[in-house]
Write a structure and sequence with these properties.
The chain has 358 residues and is α/β, with parallel strands linked by helices. The chain has 13 helices and eleven strands. Helix 6 crosses helix 13. The longest helix has 14 residues. Bound molecules: fe (ii) ion (FE2).
Length: 358
């Protein structure tokens, strides 16, 4: 028996493949690079943790433009990541969309994304709004702001995240669960800039100030502020703008009683987060997946994020038509790179557990 023999073969596309081994040249089936791949069927399996009705138009428009049909699975981000992990190499997921940088960091660390190179994504998305290794990309941003009951609370007493934990606000704070990614990212960023000891003191102050045990989503907190059950709460901007745009008289009543604050304008700036995603590691349709991500930074798609779900586009100069969103004006944003927010979440969860902030 001879040692391994060297077979050189030229494929019809001019690709040169050097194969070591006792393999008959006639049985070679060799694909090199995307160009030699068989054409993908026009299908995209989208795993999404976005939970916004207005996204329907965003997806329909992609199908209209490309003929690629989207099969969508929507789950909470924790369950979604769990599902992709347990499906492993058999996962049908092509694209994974998530609603928080901390969750995208988790998916990155767990190897759930496949790194891609895209001139379109790299040129349109600022470097501070995507991962540094080509695994995930932010497509829209949102800020975490303070809302307060104008009859119960003076704005200067709730102008910063830190003040919410001050004894002067005892019995006034409503909050969603501290373990929710929106809170973990906020607190993770606080750990980055103030350290663990200060953040733990803050978490204990928050627990001491709670008007009720943590429950509900951001909109529930805004409503509780309006009803006077509490004096102050945190919310993502798009939930507030959704109420601003609502024609429901009940929502108008809520808006009339609630004040809005960009937190920490004189200090560290307001916490900003991203919704985004990447191509799944075992994507069966990787070309379609990349096409979809590139679609998300097109002018029309960027406009859907703003006009549909009241988020800010990541592409500079993207045109939007949302008066309520524009009415919020501009603000000083926190200067923590979005790709590093996730790192603080483990410490954040540990601090919350110690402080009893559920
Ligand atoms: Fe949300």
């Amino acid at each position: 028996m001879e040692t391994a023999e060297l077979i050189e073969t030229w494929l019809d596309r001019g690709l040169r493949a050097v194969v070591v081994g006792a393999v008959a040249a006639s049985t070679l089936l060799w694909h090199d690079g995307a160009q030699a791949q068989p054409k993908e069927e026009p299908v995209l399996n989208l795993y999404s943790a976005r939970h916004y009705q207005t996204d329907e138009a965003l997806y329909d428009n992609f199908t209209k433009q490309t003929g690629i049909k989207i099969n969508r699975i929507e789950l909470g981000d924790e369950q979604l990541l769990q599902r992709v992990r347990s499906e492993g190499a058999n996962s049908p997921a092509d694209v994974i969309l998530l609603v928080d940088a901390a969750r995208m960091w988790r998916a990155q660390i767990d190897g759930l994304f496949r790194p891609i190179q895209s001139k379109v994504l790299e040129s349109r998305i600022p470097t501070n709004l995507r991962s540094n290794d080509g695994t995930w990309f932010g497509f829209s941003t949102r800020a975490r702001v303070i809302v307060y009951n104008e009859a119960k609370v003076k704005p200067e007493d709730v102008a910063t995240y830190e003040l919410l934990a001050d004894p002067r606000n005892k019995g006034l704070v409503c909050t969603r669960s501290g373990s929710h990614p929106y809170m973990l990212s906020l607190i993770g960023a606080m750990v980055e800039r103030s350290g663990e000891a200060a953040t733990e003191a803050w978490a204990r102050g928050m627990v001491a100030n709670m008007a009720r045990p943590p429950r509900g989503g951001d909109t529930d907190q805004i409503r509780a502020v309006a009803s006077g059950e509490c004096g102050v709460a945190l919310t993502n901007t798009y939930y507030w703008v959704r109420l601003l745009r609502s024609t429901d008289p009940k929502d108008k009543e809520v808006v009339a009683k609630v004040g809005f604050i960009w937190p920490n304008q004189a200090t560290s700036g307001t916490h900003v987060n991203v919704s985004g995603g990447g191509v799944a590691r075992y994507a069966p349709h990787p070309a379609n997946a990349q096409k979809f991500l590139e679609y998300l930074v097109s002018p029309e798609a960027q406009r859907y994020f703003a006009d549909g779900n009241n988020e800010w586009p990541v592409v500079k100069g993207a045109e939007v038509d949302n008066k309520a969103l524009a009415s919020l004006g501009s603000f000083k944003a926190e200067n923590v790179p979005i790709s590093s927010i996730g790192k603080g979440q483990v410490a954040a969860q540990r601090i919350l557990d110690k402080a009893g902030y559920r």
